């Protein structure tokens, strides 16, 4: 039976649940998250996006087909030309200037996950890289959906983090999430059991590092 992305999720159900349902996420949804924690997360997420752009540049280098190359180029362009500008504007709303962002040191959790992704992509192939990226590319969309299905989640003006949820529940992000799952499903369908075991280790490691990223934001750690 061909493997799918869902099989990766099932391979580390506990880690995936701890990531999707993390205390940072819950508090963001019910508006109880400390503003300082969210600001710390926003700053580090800016640095994360820069490394994410580098990962898409690496994906372009690793692309075996023109279709893969175009996908990588679109991802890189979306981050550099759209997402980073939006993130800078959003940070300004939270009192974080572009100058401050430009001079930030990377927290250890930021370094750990982003360099893990880049190292995985350098050592492996395009599928390795996408699997390492998938907890972010798929997870954030799932988190928005989980929050919207949770009765404790507060939406609208009563939640200062509503715009964050709206970003990842948007049709644009949800479409990108489903496109990534389809891409992974097509490639995973051809892998052997031993190769799938390698990919599950990557997926599990990346998910645990995403949990650490939430912890970093919640505890405002460096």
Q: In CATH terms, what is the fold-level topology?
A: Heme Oxygenase, Chain A
Q: Write the CATH homologous superfamily.
A: Heme oxygenase-like
Q: Give average pLDDT, whole number.
A: 96
CATH architecture: Up-down Bundle
Please tally the helical runs, counting DSSP H or I stretches of 4 or more residues. Answer: 12
Helix percent reads over 70%
Shape: globular
Order of SSEs, N→C?
Answer: HHHHHHHHHHHH
CA-CA gap between termini: 44 Å
Percent range for β-strand residues: under 5%
By helix and strand content, what is the structural category? mainly alpha
How would a textbook summarize the main sheet? none
The overall strand count is 0
Number of domains: 1
Rg on CA atoms, Å? 17 Å
Under the CATH scheme, which class?
Answer: Mainly Alpha
Poorly predicted segments: none
């Amino acid at each position: 039976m061909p493997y799918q992305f869902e099989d990766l999720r099932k391979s580390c159900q506990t880690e995936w649940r701890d990531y999707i349902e993390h205390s940072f996420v819950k508090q963001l949804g019910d508006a109880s998250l400390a503003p300082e924690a969210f600001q710390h997360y926003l700053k580090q997420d800016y640095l994360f996006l820069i490394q994410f752009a580098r990962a898409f540049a690496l994906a372009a280098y690793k692309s075996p087909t023109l279709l893969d190359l175009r996908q990588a180029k679109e991802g890189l362009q979306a981050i550099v030309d759209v997402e980073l500008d939006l993130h800078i504007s959003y940070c300004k709303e939270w009192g974080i200037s572009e100058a401050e962002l430009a001079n930030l040191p990377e927290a250890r959790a930021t370094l750990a996950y982003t360099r893990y992704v880049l190292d995985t992509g350098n050592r492996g192939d395009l599928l390795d890289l996408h699997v390492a990226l998938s907890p972010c590319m798929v997870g954030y969309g799932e988190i928005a959906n989980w929050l919207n299905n949770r009765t404790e989640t507060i939406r609208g003006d009563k939640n200062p983090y509503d715009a964050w949820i709206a970003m990842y529940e948007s049709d644009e992000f949800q479409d990108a999430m489903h496109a990534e799952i389809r891409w992974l499903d097509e490639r995973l369908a051809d892998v052997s059991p031993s190769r799938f075991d390698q990919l599950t280790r990557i997926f599990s490691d990346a998910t645990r590092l995403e949990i650490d990223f939430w912890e970093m934001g919640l505890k405002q750690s460096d």
